[in-house]
Write a structure and sequence with these properties.
With 335 residues, this protein is mainly beta. 0% of the residues lie in helices and 44% in strands. Strands 9, 10, 11, 12 and 13 form a 5-stranded mixed β-sheet that branches.
């Protein structure tokens, strides 16, 4: 018979707040352990959440809390980069050894076996556009990403966003989980931001089954990372593409050598949105991103609004299905 066990959670599990809290996953499970994340307000908070809560618990055979972590400012005079909150995503490694948690200004590695945690204050000194002399431009948030973490057993890809002028720009961090260290910090955006651009924040992230490559999608961009050499291979910007929180619940799925990527498309960056679908070559033998095929709504640009929404690659890694506003799109060959 089904059984229900309940124990108090730390922090707030719902979405709210003046900033529009728009998170990704809030729980992850192995066969024996689980994590839940939430956000809330410290005694020193202003209008925005500033505390991340992480609950580590036994999932079987008898559910019980193991450890609770609260990450946020310790005093009213704490620096701005001590503010966490807006916990966006949590992922457990494929072997169940570690969990990654992504929030405002922090990435955490949780050792699931012994219940310890290591914090990386990536919104603080030593990171971002001004690593030696801290400025508010270093502050970062993964808010509004539909997924902001992807992992293997020894690598993690984590995305966040920083303000540049009036724009939100994506930054990507690669972690070596064995050493518990950051091996790459990478800004992903055109060197000079296009006039009028305001949204280049991250949307989705996926790692190939063999663990060698990672694809990061953004509002108008796609980027490819080599997890063997810990380098960015290349990126592509399209002013007509659009990927926004929950407009697309996923925007990238991958095999070992292909990426299927969806977006909405607006001609000239304006007008009625329509679906767009691309298949990219992401094999390590290719020196750069190579787009193999591109499909666009056949009614574009004059038909009714028809957005892309979700996608999946079939077992066998040779076919894919995409859901749009009105159609199921079947790709019968990714080769």
């Amino acid at each position: 018979a089904a059984q229900l066990a309940a124990f108090s959670a730390s922090g707030e599990g719902t979405t709210f707040g003046l900033r529009g809290y728009q998170p990704s996953d809030r729980i992850e499970l192995t066969n024996t352990r689980g994590l839940a994340i939430g956000s809330g307000f410290s005694a020193f908070a202003g209008l925005w959440q500033d505390t991340t809560y992480i609950d580590l618990f036994d999932a079987s055979p008898s559910p019980a809390m193991i450890a609770t972590f609260a990450i946020g400012p310790a005093s009213a005079s704490a620096p701005l980069y001590d503010a966490a909150g807006y916990a966006n995503d949590v992922v457990i490694t494929r072997d169940g050894a570690y969990a990654l948690v992504n929030s405002d200004n922090f990435v955490h590695i949780v050792d699931i076996g012994n219940g310890t945690i290591k914090a990386f204050n990536i919104g603080g000194p030593g990171f971002g556009p001004s690593p030696t002399t801290w400025t508010p431009a270093n502050l970062c948030t993964p808010n509004r990403a539909v997924d902001s973490i992807a992992v293997t057993n020894d690598r993690a890809v984590v995305t966040t966003a920083r303000i540049e002028g009036n724009d939100m720009v994506t930054w990507v961090y690669l972690f070596d989980l064995n050493a518990k260290s950051i091996v790459l910090e990478q800004r992903v955006a055109p060197l000079t931001l296009p006039p009028g651009e305001i949204e280049l924040r991250p949307h989705d992230v996926a790692i190939t089954p063999n663990g060698e490559m990672a694809v990061v999608t953004m509002h108008r961009m796609i980027a490819l990372f080599d997890l063997v050499t810990d380098k960015m291979i290349g990126s592509y910007y399209n002013e007509e593409s659009s990927r926004l929180y929950q407009r697309q619940v996923d925007s990238a799925e991958v095999t070992d050598d292909r990426a299927v990527v969806i977006a909405d498309r607006r001609q000239g960056g304006t007008g009625t949105p329509h679906w767009e679908l691309e298949v990219w070559d992401i094999s390590r033998t290719s020196p750069f991103l190579t787009r193999r095929v591109q499909y666009t709504d056949p009614n574009y640009p004059n038909g009714p609004e028809s957005r892309s929404h979700d996608l999946e690659i079939a077992p066998g890694d040779t076919q894919a299905l995409v859901r749009t506003s009105f159609d199921n799109l079947f790709i019968n060959s990714l080769v």
